[in-house]
């Protein structure tokens, strides 16, 4: 790939400078090191942000920091049922943590969303944690860490939290708005794709990591019982291509009983047909953003679609069709900076109603249609999985032209991602690591086994 070694060296150095130590040991990376703005919580280590950095460290043989991260974040996981029921649920992992200095000692404090803007629940953290543990084991072959009793218990608690009996009727996970990378209100409450893809990935990782013993018997069975219905539900009901669109377009509503074809009672007036029938390439398709009663969110969410390819949540044919959408809608989804977080943006009354008039999430900005360099590594992994590396290579080369000059901005704005994000942090760690990781994966596709599932 035409990327200068100098740029890679600078990125690596910036990544090393973002490392946080705890009692003298490296344990994570800060979210950003922007000297020009107040840090708020960007000086903390976010679980989801650290994943791409961790993968780069694993690839470059710096496995120690990843091990410490896994051990320390496991200690932060909520282990006991709280009697007042006011604390977060058992099994939950924090969105982020910080090192607090006390006299001559240090302590780690987790933020379970109780300090976050909008008090959002980090549902994705525990799912990313299992994903990373599996990657660690793949890279080091050190099964003993995952097999430790405290790790086995940690995995069980996460799964118990996800698999607990609930009010819901679907095999998917029901979550509040802002429960993942998009951690502000964006109209993604219910069964958002990002969480479902991560959930499926975590179930697959857990089934590799959980020992086959009596203690795990129930949870192992529950995992196996969930995988297939979850995949079938997503492949069938979230899938959108021109054929599906035709079917939905002619759906009848108000069907009662088990024979209903329009199971979710989707009213065709709620689907943006005109725009979608022009946007969807003939040979393309993708997973919708959300599904619920009379609700099919037709926005394209990159993380959920790419992760679905990586974990084989989508069939091979569907995965190819998703990559076709990326190829044929290049300007919309890659544009001047890979990659669009979701497309299209919410506008006007939708923006008012679904974001609560959030000024940071104005159309084509931040989560609402901004471009996020971190997504590049998932594009690379999905491209390797589908033998479409050339697409990802081109994307990484586009990014390489700007990232350093733009001081590793957190996100980009505008329909094609031409502008540096209005409130984007500079020296954002997962921008740096996302770029490095995408490069490493494309140069050595063998590393994709750390993140992809057969
Ligand atoms: C923003 C992002 C979130 C990320 C955090 C730290 O809140 O939406 O996904 O984890 O910044 O970078």
How would you describe this protein?
It is built from 17 helices and 13 strands. The chain is globular. The model has no long low-confidence stretch (mean pLDDT about 95). α11 runs parallel beside α15 and α15 packs parallel to α17. The longest helix has 22 residues. With about 450 residues, the protein is mainly alpha-helical. The structure holds alpha-D-glucopyranose (GLC). Alpha-D-glucopyranose binds next to α2.
Produce a short descriptive summary.
The protein is 45% helix and 10% strand. By secondary structure, the chain is mainly α.
Features:
single chain; 454 residues; mainly alpha; two-stranded antiparallel ribbon; 17 helices; 45% helix; 10% strand; globular; binds alpha-D-glucopyranose
Task: Assess the beta-strand content as a share of residues.
Answer: 5-15%
Order of helices and strands: HEEEHHEEHHHHHEHHEEEEHHHEHHHEEH
Structural class: mainly alpha
Q: Ligands in the structure?
A: alpha-D-glucopyranose
Rounded to the nearest angstrom, the distance between the terminal CA atoms is 26 Å
Give helix % range. Answer: 40-55%
Total helices: the number is 17
Radius of gyration: 21 Å
The average pLDDT value, as a whole number, equals 96
DSSP, total strands: 13
Which parts are unreliable, with pLDDT below 50 for 5 consecutive residues or more? Answer: none
Strand order of the largest sheet: 3-4-5
Describe the global form. Answer: globular
Biggest β-sheet strands, sense, barrel: 3 strands, antiparallel
């Amino acid at each position: 790939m035409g990327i200068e070694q100098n740029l890679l060296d600078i990125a690596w150095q910036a990544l090393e400078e973002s490392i946080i130590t705890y009692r003298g040991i490296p344990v994570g990376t800060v979210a950003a090191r922007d000297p020009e703005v107040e840090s708020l919580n960007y000086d903390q280590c976010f679980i989801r942000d650290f994943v791409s950095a961790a993968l780069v460290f694993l690839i470059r043989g710096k496995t120690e920091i990843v091990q410490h991260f896994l051990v320390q974040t496991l200690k932060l996981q909520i282990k006991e049922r709280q009697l007042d029921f006011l604390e977060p649920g058992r099994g939950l992992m924090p969105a982020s943590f910080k090192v607090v200095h006390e006299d001559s000692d240090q302590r780690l404090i987790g933020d379970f969303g109780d300090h976050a803007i909008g008090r959002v629940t980090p549902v994705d953290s525990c799912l990313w944690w299992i994903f990373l543990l599996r990657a660690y084991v793949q890279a080091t072959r050190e099964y003993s860490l995952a097999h430790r009793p405290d790790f086995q218990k940690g995995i069980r608690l996460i799964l118990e939290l996800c698999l607990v009996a609930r009010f819901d009727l679907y095999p998917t996970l029901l979550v509040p708005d802002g429960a993942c990378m998009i951690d502000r209100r964006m109209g993604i409450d219910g069964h958002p794709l990002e969480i479902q893809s991560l959930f499926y990935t975590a179930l697959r990782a857990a089934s590799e990591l959980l020992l086959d013993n009596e203690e795990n018997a129930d949870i192992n069975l529950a995992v196996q019982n969930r995988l297939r219905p979850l995949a079938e539900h997503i492949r069938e009901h979230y899938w959108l291509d021109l054929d599906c669109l035709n079917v939905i377009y002619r759906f009848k509503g108000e069907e009662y009983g088990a024979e209903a074809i329009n199971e979710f009672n989707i009213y065709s007036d709620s689907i943006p047909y005109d725009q979608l029938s022009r946007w969807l390439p003939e040979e393309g398709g993708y997973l919708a953003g959300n599904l619920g009663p009379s609700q099919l969110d037709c926005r394209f969410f990159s993380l959920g679609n790419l992760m679905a390819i990586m974990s084989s949540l989508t069939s091979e044919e569907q995965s190819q069709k998703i990559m076709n959408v990326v190829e044929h809608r290049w300007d919309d989804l890659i544009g001047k900076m890979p990659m669009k977080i979701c497309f299209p943006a919410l506008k006007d009354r939708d923006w008012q109603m679904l974001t609560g008039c959030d000024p940071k999430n104005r159309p084509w900005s931040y989560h609402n249609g901004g471009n996020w360099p971190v997504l590049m590594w998932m594009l690379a992994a999905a491209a390797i999985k589908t033998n479409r590396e050339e697409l990802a290579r081109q994307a990484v080369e586009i990014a390489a032209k700007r990232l350093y000059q733009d001081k590793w901005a957190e996100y980009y704005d505008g329909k094609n991602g031409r502008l540096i994000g209005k409130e984007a942090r500079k020296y954002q760690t997962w921008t740096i690591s996302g770029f490095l990781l995408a490069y490493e994966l494309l140069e050595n596709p063998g590393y994709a086994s750390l993140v992809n599932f057969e």
